[in-house]
Structures are given as structure tokens and as C-alpha cells.
Amino acid sequence: MLAKAKTKNQRHQQLAQLMKNKDGINTLFEIIKSTKINPYDFKTDSECIMFIRHVSEIITNNNLNLSAKNNDIDDLKNIVITIIKQFKLLIEKKGMNTLLWKDRNNPNKEETAQKIFHMTAYNYCKANDIDISPEMHTGIGNVDFKFSKGFSKKIIVEIKLSSNPNIVNGFTTQLQLYKKSEETLSGYYIVIDVGGMGEKLNKLEKLYKDDNNKLSEIFYIDALHKPTASKRKPIKKKRIVNDDYSTLYNDISETIRDIEITEIDFDLQDVKIKLLENDIDISDIDIEIPEINIDLSDIEIKY
């Protein structure tokens, strides 16, 4: 009976009629029992229910205060750049890079990154009365995002995955045409690394370096899989026994790489190594120097 109703009002009338007596209620239960309902597949998440929930939780937990001050084009640029940096932070540091992958080896389409960026930007734009238009038609194609405040203040944002073979052309041609069509000089080009980068980033950086006006800025975001903390290799501890300074320095370099050694003071058998702004435990490194008399007080070593 309910299935034959053509309008919402007719369905309500039939439902009310069924609910008037016991037989009608039993009939309604039989209709419900006979209806085939497929459970929602949360794994494939075809309606993006879990995706939206996950993104919303991460954005809410990493919110930031953002407000316009002068309402000019520079103010709009600062807000858009802040949004891009927040987008970068969420992907690189807050685990949102996992949403850009179907599985360990296959990234999602660029539309997934665009959805995350839109969700990241939306509340900030709403709070600052900024219009954000995704998939905006420009007459020559659809630009990923247009931020605008009034008629004259406009900024174009394009997002490309590193797997896209048209990354370089997108920057040199596509973005510039979109800017021209929207009558704006400002544009930002976001490149998200999901593998397959090759020489594309180097070519983009050279193009940007050679551009005297620097009107289209490039932002690189690393969305590659990161090893978990339990799988990261610890710093190996090593006993060092030396009888001359050069060997000592080489061994220290091998043991503690990427550390800036700003001061080494030698006083017979006492060795003092000052490591500034580095949170690394070197308490188990044992250095033995039989007898050395070297004045290095004026030598600064950076490695």
C-alpha cells in the first residue's frame, strides 16, 4: 500500500490509516519485515559518512583562531596561506594523510584532497565573510577553489597529486589561465606527494625561482606513509676510544649525525661536548683520550 503512494502526503495518510487498528499495525510490521535493506558498508564508505566524520573530528581538535583585519587583498592572502598551512599540518603531522590513500599502495583521487581542503577552509571562510567556491567554472575549465571577498579581491587555489602527469603544465598554463579568466594576479599551487614525483617538483621549483614576480606560490605537502613510532630506528650507542682528535671527530660524526657541535673543549682526559637545541641522549657514549693537549677554544665545528 505504502509503495503505491505517489506523494509524501499520500504516504502520511496511508500510514495514519494503518495505525488506527491492530490489523493495520500488523500489516505495517509485515511490510517492514518483507522490505530488503542492505546494511551500509562502512569499509567502502560510498556516501563518505565515516570520511566526513573523521575529517571533522581532526579539524575540530586542531582548530585555530583566524580573523581578518584590514579586509584588503593582503589580508585575504594571509588567511588563504594560513588555511593552506593548516591543511599541510593536518596531513603531515595529524595523520590525515591516511585519508588520501585507498590502501597502502594506491592513493585516492585528487577529489579526496579537495574535499579535505574544503572542509578545512570552510569554517575559517565563514567566520571571516569570505566566499569559497569549489570547482568554480571559469569559462576555460573548473578551478579547484576560488576565494573572494567582494568583486576585486580574488585568489585561485589549485591542488595536484604528485601522481598527476600534468603537474608542471598545470602550474605554467592552467593556473595562469584561470587567474586571467578570474581577473586576479594571485594564485597558489598545492602539490601533494603520494609518490611518483620524479623530477616534477624540481621543475616546479625552478619555474618559481625564475619567475621574478612570484605571483603564484607553490606549497609542497608530504602525504607519504610514515613509519609508526615503534618501527622507527633508535640512535645506536657506541663506545669510542681514540688517541687523536681527527679520529674522535669522525667517530662522533658517525654516531650522532645531523647534530650541530658548537663547542668542544679539551682538558687532558676531560672531554666536554655541548649540543645545543637537540633532544638526544648521549649519556652512554664513553670517550677515552689518554693524553692530548690541544687548544680548540676558537674553533667552531658544524656538521
Summarize the structure.
The chain is of the alpha/beta class.
Explain the overall architecture.
This protein is an alpha/beta fold and 303 residues long. It has three domains: 2-34, no CATH class; 50-222, Restriction Endonuclease; 233-288, no CATH class. Helix content is 37%, strand content 18%. It has helices at residues 8-18, 22-34, 49-61, 73-92, 110-127, 167-181, 200-210, 245-255, and strands at 131-137, 142-149, 153-161, 187-193, 216-222, 240-241, 261-267, 270-275, 287-288. The strands form three sheets. Strands 1-2-3-4-5 form a five-stranded mixed sheet, with helices on both faces. A two-stranded parallel sheet has the order 6-9. It has a two-stranded antiparallel ribbon with strand order 7-8. Helix 7 (200-210) links the parallel strand 4 (187-193) and strand 5. Helix 4 (73-92) crosses helix 5 and helix 6 crosses helix 7 (200-210). It is elongated. The N and C termini lie far apart (81 Å). The model is unreliable at 237-246 and 256-282 (pLDDT under 50).
